[in-house]
Structures are given as C-alpha cells and as structure tokens.
Amino acid sequence: MTTEKDHLSPQRRVRKIAIQRLESYRRAGITHWPRALDSTTPVGLAAVTDEIVDETVVAETATEGAKEMSAKIDPAAALNIIEQEVRACERCGELAAGRTQTVFGDGNPQARLCFLGEAPGRDEDRQGVPFVGRAGKLLNDIIQACTWQREDVYILNVIKCRPPENRNPAPEEAENCRGFLQRQLETIKPEYICCLGTVAAQNLLDTKETIGRLRGQFHEYQGIKVLATYHPAYLLRNPSAKQQVWDDMQMLMRDMGISIPK
Questions:
Q1: Cα–Cα distance, 35 to 33 (Å, whole number)
Q2: Helix, strand, or coil (residue 123)
Q3: What is the DSSP letter of 210?
Q4: In terms of C-beta density within 10 A (0-12 exposed, 13-18 middle, 19 or more buried), how is residue 239 classed?
Q5: Closest by alpha carbon to 101, among 140, 139, 130?
Q6: What SS3 class is residue 49?
Q7: In contact, 174 and 118? CB cutoff 8 Å
Q8: How far is CA 163 from the centre of its chain?
Q9: pLDDT above 60 for 88
Q10: Which end of the chain is more exposed for a tag (fewer CB within 10 A), N or C?
Q11: 211-243 pLDDT, tens digit each
Q12: CA-based end-to-end distance of the chain
C-alpha cells in the first residue's frame, strides 16, 4: 500500500512540521521572529510561512528557528496550543470519525521523564487521558515503585486517537501524528523517554527491531536518552515479564541518579 509518507521527501516532511509550528506560535501571540538564526532583524510569521510554502527558504532553518522560539513560550501554554490543534485534527478520517475525543497527554510539562505508549484505548477515548484503564493502573504502580508520582512524569502516545478495535496504529496514522509528538517532546524537553512496547519504540527510534532486542540498553532520540521496555498491557497477559520491566526501571533510575528502592 502506498502512503503519504512514501511521497514525502525528508525536506517536505520537515517543511510540513515547520508550518504547523509557525501556526502554533502565531496563536500564542508571537508575531515576529529572526529571518535567520544569526539575524536580529525580525520578519512577520506570515511571511516566513509563505516563504516555506514557496520553497524559497530551507525548511530545516525554519524548523531550527521554531525550536528557538518555543523556548520563549511557557511549556504548559505551548502544550495547550498544540492540544487545541490535535482536537481539531481530521487527517486520519477513520480515526476522527470514530473517536469520542482526542487523547493528548498528561503530567508535568517540564518532566525529566516521558512515558510513551502507542495509542489510546477504550477507557482513554472515553476520558481523554492516556493510560487510565487496567494497563494504566499497572503503569501507575510502576511509576510509584520508582519513587515517583504520576504528576512527576509526562505520559503520551504515538497517536492521539483510538484505532478501531484497539488495533495498532497504521504507518500513515503514525506519520500524520508525528509532528504533534515531536512538538510535544520539544516543548517538554525531557532528559529521558521510556517507550512502552514495540509500536512506541519502533516509531520513535525509526527501527524494526523487536522490543526484546531493544530493551535493556539506552538509545538516543534527538539528544534524549531512550529506554524501551514491555507495555503494561503485555504484562497483564504475561506477568512473568514484570521482573524484566523492573530491571529496566532500575537501570533507568540509576542513570537518573535516583536511589533504587530495595
């Protein structure tokens, strides 16, 4: 099956995300930014957006500038702007038609650690909050066993709408949501990301390796340390894997400089 992702060059994908970011900053009240990263002469955001669309500037430069501007917006406010865009998103027709509501994210907007899952389930779709069902309760237990509270971390998913029958996100659905995910992470600026399950890890790290091969070691995503482990839903079906997850959490806590509970 041919998807939109197959037709987009890397530069066009970056340009698409850059335009989305510029629109977010405009909504936040920022009307001008430097034409170039080393320039002190501001230019209107509308003009920058037009230049990106006309392909008369390099999209990567716009993206770097957008990251620079994100530092000037309060993280909670910036996340709220992105969330409003997510709520209005209809890029995935099937998901938009079938959802009760979008599920953006939950937790500390300046968290050191983010937990990344794959997609909302039935309970999440009803409540609008990630990881609130049985798997969510188990994730809460894992978080508390690590001496944290849910409010200390940030929890989000690869996609923001529930797939029918809780199937895995299709590649084009993950691609449609990727800009939102990237902007969330750039706003939160976590030091660590814990990927919960194969789908989350493969999408974030752009790999086809299994979770069994990915876990037990640190990876990297845009300067952020990434640890992959089993999804709480998998642990509900395979309780024997809980020890492996705890081993992963202990490795994570040691690297974060947190005393490990006995």
A1: 6
A2: helix
A3: -
A4: exposed
A5: 130
A6: helix
A7: no
A8: 17
A9: yes
A10: C
A11: 999 999 999 999 999 999 999 999 999 999 999
A12: 50
> What are 240-249's pLDDT values in tens digits?
999 999 999 9
Residue ranges of alpha helices (H) inside the chain are 4-7, 10-27, 45-53, 59-70, 75-88, 93-98, 122-127, 134-145, 171-188, 198-205, 211-214, 232-237, 242-256
Q: In sequence order, what DSSP letters do the residues of 185-199 get, joined into one string?
A: HHHH--SEEEEESHH
Question: Rounded CA gap, 90 and 195, in Å?
Answer: 26
Per-residue model confidence as pLDDT tens digits over 13-53: 556 555 555 655 555 445 444 444 444 445 455 554 444 44
Q: Domain boundaries in the chain?
A: 4-70, 102-256
| DSSP code at position 239 | G
Say if residues 124 and 104 touch (Cβ distance below 8 Å). Answer: no
**Closest C-alpha among 142, 130, 100 to residue 261:** 142
CA distance 241 to 229: 10
186-208 b/e with 16+ CB inside 10 Å = b? bbbbbebbbbbbbbbbbbbbeee
Domain spanning 102-256, CATH class: alpha beta
pTM score: 0.77
